[in-house]
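The methods section describes the discrete structure representation at length, but only in general terms. The central task, working out the structure tokens from the amino acid sequence alone, is never made concrete. Nothing conveys this as quickly as seeing an actual entry. For illustration, here is how one protein appears when written out as sequence plus structure tokens:
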Amino acid sequence: MASHRRAKQPGRARVTVLTSAAAAAVALSSQAANAAPVAKPSKDEVKSRVDKLYEEAEQATEKFNGAKEKQEKLQKQISTLQESVARGQDELNDLRDGIGSMATAQYRSGGIDPSLQLFLSSDPDSYLDKASALDQLSSQQVETLKKIQAKQRELAQERAEATGKLKDLAATRTELGKKKTEVQAKLAEAQKLLNSLTAAEKAALAAEQDRASRSASDRVDLGNDTSATGRAAAAFAAAKTRLGTPYVYGATGPSSFDCSGLTSWAYAQAGVSIPRTSESQATIGTKIYSTSGLQVGDLVFFFNDLHHVGLYAGNGQILHAPRTGTVVRYESMSTIGGPFMFGVRV
């Protein structure tokens, strides 16, 4: 027979909780409806934030460049060590073959010398350390054993060094990956901000940059660049041929550059090899702390951590690869966005 029990009514405490939750939801909905809409950032605000992101990306780019340079050096060193180990192993094998031939000859003539037999069954290091055994060996045998001993130690050292460098290489590759991710994240955030601008705002920003670049170029033309001499003049002349070339982080030319990529490429065209990163480039040559002492072709460094570098162009202007979204161009030193630290005459 079917049951006709009366449905259980919700308890007073439960009703109170549900009522309170509903009231809170209504209040939140009301607050959300009445909240002022988030104001869209202005063109100038977007530009300021984007400039900051590009600066941070350039800082990470120079760290990326440093890790990449270190990786390439380690790979070369490891390759050299591995080739040396392979050659050394061949030499060691030849020495051991010589001892083996000596033992074979003695066996055929009536048995192996006890001292040679002892050597063949033990480590040469421990055997040679037994001075009493040396008088049982011929001078030729002693010389061969000493060569084997020296070669074994040399190989052990080279193998240990190669192992250490392989560990450094693995750590450097990890750092390289992190820096690359950091740069890409900064650039993506900057692009997202730029995409929030209207077409008219984007056009206005582009026009501002174009006017600034033309003004800097005019000032260079009005100035006197005859102060450039020798290799500095050749480097500056090479860099001028790259005007209009796009900035790409990690690029060293000739179709794209980052800031230190341009300066290292320009000096390479003048027959001068300088370090890859701006931080390393700041350590070479003669430092010039006054802008009045700069000559065309000098390296010029900006920001406290020296993460930006260009070539002095005369009349207070530089020739450089500014940042993502721009091209190699002239620009006033006063508009770089960071303080001038010093110049370097290579």
Remarks:
- Residues 13-19 have pLDDT under 50 and may be disordered.
- The first helix runs from residue 12 to 34.
